[in-house]
Design brief:
Elements (H helix, E strand, L loop, with lengths): L8 E2 L1 H10 L9 E6 H10 L3 E6 L6 E8 L17 E5 L5 E9 L1 H7 L4 E3 L5 E3 H4 L3 E5 L2 E5 L3 H9 L8 E2 L2 E4 L4 E4 L2 H7 L1
Parallel strand pairs: 2-6
Antiparallel strand pairs: 1-2, 3-4, 4-5, 5-6, 6-7, 7-8, 9-10, 11-12, 12-13
C-alpha cells in the first residue's frame, strides 16, 4: 500500500505469526494490517473500490485485488460490532482477504482520562503511541513489511504474555529447529485432549 500513499504495518494475528517465524499462522484465515487515520482518509477519498494488480517479486504470478473501504470507517464507536474492520483487500480470484484497521488518536483518553499519546482502533485496542512508532522494517513471508517498534508489548496487551511463550496452540506445535508450526501428531493430541 506504500505505492498508493498508505504506510502499512502488521497487527493482530499477522503480527503474532511474524513474532514466531515471520509467517502466517497456519490456523489464521486472513492477514491483518493497520494504517493511520490520515492514510485511511486518503484511501477512502481516492482508491475505494479500485482494483490493483500485484505480482509477488520473482514469482511471475500476478493477482488482482479489490480495495473495499467500509463506509463507516470514520466511526470511532465501539458499539457497532459489525464495523470493526475499516477496509479490506479482497483477492478477486480466491476470495481471501487482508483486513485493514485504522489507528487513530484516542480523543476520549485525552479528554476524559488526561492521558496523552494514546491511539486506538475501534475493536477496543488502545496503545501508547511509542509502542507503535517508529515502525521497524522487517520481512513477512519473504516480503518487506513493517511492525510496531514495541511489538512484544503490543502482542502481550492483545493476547497475553502466554501467546509469546506457549508453543502448542490450535492443534499445532512450534518446532524450534524447523522454525515452523507443525500439526500435532495423533499421539500428542490424545495426551492434550
Amino acid at each position: 500500500m506504500n505505492d498508493i500513499g498508505a504506510e502499512t504495518w502488521l497487527m493482530h494475528g499477522s503480527l503474532l505469526g511474524w513474532y514466531w517465524n515471520r509467517k502466517i499462522l497456519p490456523w489464521d484465515l486472513d492477514l491483518d494490517v493497520q494504517i493511520t487515520e490520515k492514510s485511511m482518509q486518503h484511501l477512502s477519498s481516492y482508491y475505494n473500490m479500485t482494483v490493483h494488480r500485484y505480482e509477488l517479486p520473482g514469482s511471475g504470478v500476478a493477482r488482482d485485488y479489490l480495495l473495499e473501504i467500509n463506509p463507516n470507517w470514520a466511526s470511532t464507536s465501539f458499539d457497532d460490532v459489525d464495523n470493526k474492520i475499516d477496509a479490506r483487500w479482497l483477492d478477486m480470484s480466491s476470495g481471501l482477504y487482508i483486513d485493514i484497521t485504522t489507528l487513530r488518536y484516542d480523543d476520549h483518553a485525552e479528554r476524559e482520562e488526561g492521558v496523552k499519546a494514546v491511539v486506538m482502533c475501534k475493536d477496543g485496542h488502545r496503545y501508547s503511541t511509542s509502542n507503535i512508532l517508529p515502525l521497524a522494517d522487517t520481512t513477512f513471508e519473504g516480503v518487506a513489511a513493517k511492525v510496531p517498534s514495541a511489538f512484544a508489548t503490543v502482542l502481550a496487551q492483545e493476547y497475553g504474555v502466554s501467546a509469546l511463550q506457549t508453543a502448542v496452540f490450535a492443534g499445532h506445535r512450534f518446532d524450534v529447529v524447523r522454525q515452523e508450526w507443525m500439526p500435532l501428531l495423533a499421539s500428542e493430541r490424545d495426551v492434550r485432549d
